[in-house]
Write a structure and sequence with these properties.
It contains eleven helices and five strands; from the N terminus they run ααββαββαβααααααα. It is an alpha/beta fold. About 0% of the residues have low confidence.
Length: about 325
């Protein structure tokens, strides 16, 4: 049995190599890393205007996005006129940060983090809790890294497993497997392992390149746990949908709908100030937020959550096994 499984595993690795999947991963790593480091972290580095009431006229921050006012009334008036602005009142080497509630805790914390990074070069101490100990640019690196990882696993892996399955189908591998005395679930386990290893390699390299070794080591375990849960789910979902459609062209239409319905809303309503209460009914919402929290070292999953993940994995595996048996009978 072990020899059969190893043989299937080797075959799947060969198929992945022949399909140039590793080249796609390398290109993705290069493109994403260049985007995060050269464009994203420098895009809107000064997103919020800062209004300062400085009792000592000491020019706390020298920046084109900073304006000074003479009194508190003027400070609040300016803040009302521009609700995206951040007001800073200073006295006795202490500061009070004033912002208008954006309706998003994430945006509020980001504003605090941003203005704190501006005050860091001074001796002024803010009287609120800073969002972690990361810099503003590091925050942007982590944020985009979580988006890239989630997209790579949910969208790219989902599509690649289907492409690999249809290629095996065309080559007659399924027909050969159907008449060989092998356990059918080995075919699924093999693909889960292959794509899981590819996803882990991608995630580790991407994180090392973009958020740094020292920070990544602090979140490594939590991030890998999320990948170990997310990757098999998406591989098995991709396998299920590829078994339900006759060819790759038909699958693409379903794939487009799946991405639009289940993935796009997560990026739209989790990473932006837009709010939509129904997003909590999307299963992908919890998959993404857990990964996002893991990268920020704020993951706090309950035992019930892990049990739900395990039950979903078992259910998907059973469905995959039955579908592959039916497909082999037809072959």
């Amino acid at each position: 049995m072990v020899k059969q499984f190893i043989a299937i595993l080797k075959n799947d690795f060969k198929c992945v190599i022949k399909s140039n999947q590793y080249l796609i991963l390398i290109c993705s790593l290069l493109v994403y890393t260049l985007y995060i480091n050269c464009i994203y972290i420098n895009n809107n580095v000064n997103p919020y205007p800062i209004i300062i009431l400085d009792s000592y006229k000491s020019s706390l921050i020298s920046d084109t996005h900073v304006s000074y006012v003479d009194n508190e009334q003027q400070l609040y008036q300016e803040l009302q006129n521009n609700k995206e602005a951040i007001a800073v009142k200073t006295a006795n080497k202490k500061s009070e940060i004033v912002i208008i509630d954006s309706g998003s805790e994430k945006i509020n914390n980001l504003k605090k983090l941003y203005v704190t990074s501006k005050l860091k070069s001074t001796n002024i101490k803010a009287d609120f809790e800073v969002l972690g100990t990361i810099s503003f640019k590091q925050h942007k690196r982590i944020e985009m890294t979580s988006v890239v990882i989630f997209f790579e696993i949910t969208a790219i892996s989902f599509l690649t497993i289907a492409a690999l399955f249809f290629k095996e189908k065309e080559q007659g591998i399924l027909k050969i497997s159907s008449i060989m005395p092998i356990k059918k679930h080995y075919l699924i386990l093999s693909k889960i392992i292959v794509f899981l290893l590819l996803d882990i390699c991608f995630v580790v390299i991407l994180c090392l390149l973009n958020i740094g070794y020292s920070y990544f080591m602090t979140v490594l375990i939590n991030v890998l746990i999320q990948v170990l849960l997310l990757s098999p789910i998406m591989v098995m979902l991709g396998f299920i949908f590829s078994l339900l459609y006759r060819n790759f062209k038909q699958f693409i239409f379903a794939y487009t709908g799946i991405i639009i319905l289940f993935t796009s809303p997560v990026f739209l309503f989790v990473n932006t100030p837009f709010k939509w209460s129904a997003i909590e009914y999307f299963p992908t919402y919890y998959l993404y937020t857990n990964l996002h929290k893991a990268l920020y070292n704020k993951l706090n999953m309950s035992l019930v959550s892990y049990l739900v993940y395990i039950l979903v994995l078992i259910l998907l595996f059973i469905i995959n096994t039955r579908l592959i048996r039916n497909e082999m009978k037809r072959s």
